[in-house]
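Module 6 notes. Inverse folding takes a fixed backbone as the condition and produces residue identities as the prediction. Think of it as a translation problem where the source language is geometry and the target language is the twenty amino acids. Below is one complete input and output pair. Work through it position by position during the lab.
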């Protein structure tokens, strides 16, 4: 019996234990998020034109009509609806003993009984039914499929772990058309996610109509077209340049979005950024910038070059009048009890030079510019409170005095700064960048569209536990919940956003709804497959990254060990070593492979007789340095001699980078004396991330690892170092003459800071190498 058979038998045994010893058909009851309690029954309930929903009042009728409407669109019938009657096939019964958002669902072959204390509970019960129905329920038109509109008999009692289960959607960097946004809201609702944090303003666009300030959308909603290069590479607009990229929501659009979300039990929380991330607003009304700003202000197509540090002038009282006016209109449009005021990443350089800001610091007896930001946020927050609203802000607000009653979104790192607010008795929400930022790569990077930083896989999101063991007990009671954040710098079309959101949003929902002791990764994957089948019918683009293979190739005693991994335990990895495409009959991967020469390993995941993930091609190129040790104790340097070249993504785990910018040295032990004529070093340039060639590379050699002699040094000009683009270069170093040595030492010197004309002037450069080739 192989390990995959063992896994299947174990899962089947566990499923029967949890769900009861009913017929095997009922082990297919798969829901995400997983219900608190579930007991399968016997038989199925079949929906038809004779099915009647019986509800108690008009509010419940609105909830029922959501599911009835889906039958109308996708099936060839419309179930009936009775308001105020007690007789029906699907009955709603108010049960005040249940908690907010909780529900009980009892399905038999004859009827469905739903109990809840509020409309949210009834709605979530119907979302459970929706997932139990065939995925064809999601069709936008009457299906031609022969569908049995039935669900299995089951008894479910369910309630959420956290009251705040959120998604932050950035529509400022990429404007999401209204129809696509509504579809995302619908997909959120199916997962019982109940908060949409709506990031409406930033440097790259102002997306909400404010009638008192029309230039915010006439100018601030539009930017120059730089879509031919990735976000970090984009240069600022020139005066007079056309600005065709963007869009905004009218106030009527906002009302429609809010109403649609409310029908889906989702609260829309607007965010108006301040005092930074405001260049779109300042491009519209430059008088709100500090008077020391003496450059053209445009809506930023990218990271902003030296305009990225723009802030609202904290010494200008008209700025606060502006925000009062904006908040008046925002508060009227959004019934949410919250308004998010941003507060993150505010550079202070202009405030330090601004006479108005310095006068404000003196007048208010503030110690420094950080306290000036606290003054700014507290002043605006006070006006928000006067409108009957509460404020939310990013965790930089904890750097100084917090506004009264502020709720903090912990985002930096693992969100620890939010605990500073909790220590002062403030509520908080966890949305840590290291786990919950969906802009990051969601699988093996060789297959993913380019974005920032490292990986946050589906499994990483699923395994996140917000409440840590070292927390003080009172912190857990102040945690409102968790949120995934979808920043859109690298999105140019709606499908880009959907691809990054799904299916990781389902893992967020599981963490937010399910008690940690009830989580089960294999069972979640089974439920996820059902959810993604629904997404397919809705024609939502979702990633299949969970089926792709991550490789690790490590030098070990003169050979290479190749480890292949997939985050799904229910797949087989099949591989070939002759360069041919893998099939379901290719060799089964069961343990790390040993490679001793140049060859190409092709591998992919399989299940049910078909290929599930993309084919991973690993061309191993052997040279005199391959599989040889790098002296020292830095594990990341092992990729320099593992025979695998990196991709154009410097975080794909095949590139070795160093934090030092001045000088780096490493030594390769060839294990014996070797003749050599050239050394080649794989080097990557990612101009937008300030990753460039080093200033110089020198090669020295030795036979005893003590006395080294120079073999060659090369230097690079600023033009060579700072050439724009993202590309891989091979730094070829032809030695002065053929040498014979055992030890090869590479010493590099950094290129210093980015020059003034760079997209990131003054920022420290970094360099990354992927392979040392000795010939």
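Target side of the pair, the amino acids:
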């Amino acid at each position: 019996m192989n390990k995959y058979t063992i896994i299947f038998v174990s899962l089947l045994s566990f499923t029967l234990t949890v769900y009861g010893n009913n017929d095997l058909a009922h082990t297919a009851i798969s829901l995400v998020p997983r219900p608190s309690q579930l007991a399968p029954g016997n038989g199925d309930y079949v929906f038809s034109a004779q099915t009647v929903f019986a509800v108690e009042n008009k509010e419940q009728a609105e909830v029922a009509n959501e599911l009835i409407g889906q039958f109308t669109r996708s099936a060839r019938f419309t179930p009936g609806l009775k308001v105020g009657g007690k007789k029906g096939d699907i009955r709603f019964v108010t049960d005040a003993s249940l908690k907010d958002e909780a529900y009980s669902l009892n399905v038999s072959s004859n009827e469905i009984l739903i109990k809840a204390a509020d409309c949210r509970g009834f709605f979530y019960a119907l979302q459970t039914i929706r997932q139990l129905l065939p995925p064809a329920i999601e069709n936008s038109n009457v299906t031609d499929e022969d569908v049995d509109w039935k669900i299995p008999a089951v008894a479910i009692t369910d309630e959420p772990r956290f009251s705040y289960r959120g998604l932050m959607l950035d529509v400022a960097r990429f404007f999401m058309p209204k129809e696509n946004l509504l579809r995302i809201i619908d997909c959120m609702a199916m997962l019982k996610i109940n908060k949409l944090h709506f990031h409406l303003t930033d440097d790259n666009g102002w997306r909400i109509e404010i009638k008192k300030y029309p230039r915010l959308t006439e100018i601030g909603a539009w930017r120059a077209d730089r879509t031919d290069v990735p976000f970090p590479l984009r240069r600022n607009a020139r005066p007079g340049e056309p600005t065709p990229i963007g869009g905004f929501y009218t106030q009527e659009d906002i009302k429609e979005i809010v109403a649609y979300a409310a029908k889906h039990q989702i609260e829309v929380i607007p965010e108006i950024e301040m005092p930074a991330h405001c260049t779109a607003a300042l491009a519209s009304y430059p008088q709100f910038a500090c008077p020391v700003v003496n450059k053209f202000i445009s809506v930023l197509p990218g990271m902003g070059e030296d305009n990225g540090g723009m802030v609202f002038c904290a010494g200008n009282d008209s700025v606060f009048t502006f925000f009062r006016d904006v908040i008046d209109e925002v508060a009227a449009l959004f019934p949410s009890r919250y308004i998010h005021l941003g507060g993150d990443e505010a550079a202070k350089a202009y405030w330090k030079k601004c006479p108005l800001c310095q006068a404000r610091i003196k007048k208010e007896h503030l110690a420094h510019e950080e306290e000036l930001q606290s003054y700014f946020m507290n002043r605006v927050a006070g006006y928000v409170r006067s409108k009957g609203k509460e404020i939310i802000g990013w965790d930089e607000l904890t750097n100084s005095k917090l506004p009264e009653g502020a709720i903090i979104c912990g985002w930096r790192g693992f969100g620890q700064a939010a605990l500073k607010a909790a220590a002062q008795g403030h509520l908080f929400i966890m949305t840590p960048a290291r786990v919950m930022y969906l802009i990051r790569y969601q699988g093996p990077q060789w297959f993913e569209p380019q974005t920032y930083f490292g990986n946050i896989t589906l499994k990483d999101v699923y395994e996140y536990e917000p409440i840590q063991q070292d927390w003080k007990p009172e912190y857990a009671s102040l945690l409102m919940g968790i949120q995934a954040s979808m920043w859109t710098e690298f999105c140019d079309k709606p499908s880009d956003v959907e691809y990054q959101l799904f299916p990781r949003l389902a893992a967020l929902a599981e963490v937010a709804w399910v008690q940690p002791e009830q989580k089960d990764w294999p069972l979640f994957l089974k439920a996820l497959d059902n959810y993604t089948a629904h997404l397919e019918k809705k024609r939502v683009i979702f990633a299949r990254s969970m089926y792709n293979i991550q490789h690790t190739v490590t030098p070990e005693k003169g050979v290479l060990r190749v480890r292949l991994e997939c985050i799904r335990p229910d797949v087989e990895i099949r591989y070939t070593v002759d360069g041919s495409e893998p099939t379901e009959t290719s060799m089964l991967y069961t343990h790390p492979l040993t490679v001793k020469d140049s060859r190409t390993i092709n591998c992919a995941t399989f299940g049910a007789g078909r290929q599930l993930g993309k084919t991973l091609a690993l061309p191993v190129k052997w040279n005199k340095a391959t599989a040889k040790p790098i002296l020292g104790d830095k594990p990341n340097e092992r990729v320099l001699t593992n025979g695998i070249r990196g991709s154009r993504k410097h975080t794909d785990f095949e590139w070795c980078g160093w934090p030092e910018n001045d000088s780096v040295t490493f030594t390769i032990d060839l294990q014996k004396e070797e003749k050599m004529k050239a050394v080649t070093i794989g080097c990557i340039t990612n101009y937008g991330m300030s990753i460039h060639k080093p200033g110089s590379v020198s090669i020295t050699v030795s036979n005893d690892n003590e006395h080294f002699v120079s073999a060659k040094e090369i230097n690079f000009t600023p033009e060579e170092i700072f050439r724009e683009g993202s590309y891989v270069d091979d730094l070829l170093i032809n030695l002065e003459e053929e040498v014979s040595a055992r030890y090869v030492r590479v010493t590099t010197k950094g290129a210093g800071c980015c020059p003034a004309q760079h997209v990131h002037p003054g920022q420290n450069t970094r360099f990354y190498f992927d392979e040392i080739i000795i010939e």
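Reference fact for the lab report: The CA atoms of residues 495 and 541 lie 6 Å apart.
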